[in-house]
Amino acid sequence: MTTHIYSGPLSMFGAKVEIAAREKGVPFELVMVPFTKDDAYEPKHPEVLRVNPVKQQVPVLVDDEVSLFDSTQIFEYLEDRYPSLALWPEGIAGRARARQLEQKSDEVFFPNVIKLFGLQHDMQSAAAVAACAGCARFYEEMEGLLATREYLAGPYSFADIAFYMAYVFADRKGAGMTDATPRLLAWRTRVGDRPAVRAVVDPMMRFLASEGRGVPAFLQR
């Protein structure tokens, strides 16, 4: 049975899953669900409704007898199914640290980005300034981690994929990195130059451009 990944043209979480699958060399068919101009995935794809009937969101992975939603759960499944191409570090402690970083990208960093949605017209507002400050604090924390390593958890891992994609959306919404975090800027280049990352992010940027939306300067080809 062919592995199917259901995603959307501007799905950050779907992009995370697709990058991971490409890094692991997993053969899959990518299904882009319908997308409307007001950033809604409508009409809902029937397979997404079957697998994720409550949240009705992508990403969804359907593989053999397994049907999953949630990018982190899909990460874990891919790691179990294709262990020889590891995207978690070796050792219990290393994997725990990487999992924590992946979770923090989604649950600590990205909520600041969500607060910026719809505030591009008023980036001097208290809400926007506070959200940007929250992003900046996270950048400083990641800068500290990179003092002794090339990637966030040591070797390249799911933690890097998660934070890179969350950062793409942060930059789009006005909370980009600055020269205050030079190691993090270098990390951004290292991750962004990976073929699997470019294969996913470049089409997303082309879609943004086709919609007349801004593309982050660091991703303009």
Structure description:
This protein is of the alpha+beta class. The protein has helices at residues 12-23, 46-51, 71-81, 92-116, 126-145, 158-172, 182-192, 195-210; strands at 3-7, 28-32, 60-63, 66-69. It has a four-stranded mixed β-sheet with strand order 2-1-3-4. Helix 1 packs antiparallel against helix 6.
Features of the shown structure:
221 residues, alpha+beta, 4-stranded mixed β-sheet, 8 helices
Helical coverage, percent range: 40-55%
User: What Rg is obtained from the alpha carbons, in whole angstroms?
Assistant: 17 Å
Averaged pLDDT: 96
Number of helices: 8
Task: Let me know the largest β-sheet.
Answer: 4 strands, mixed
Ranges where pLDDT stays below 50 over 5 or more residues in a row are: none
Strand order of the largest sheet: 2-1-3-4
Task: Give the SSE order as H and E letters.
Answer: EHEHEEHHHHHH
Shape, principal axes of CA atoms: globular
Number of strands: 4
Please identify the oligomeric state: single chain
**Ends distance:** 36 Å
Strand percent estimate: 5-15%
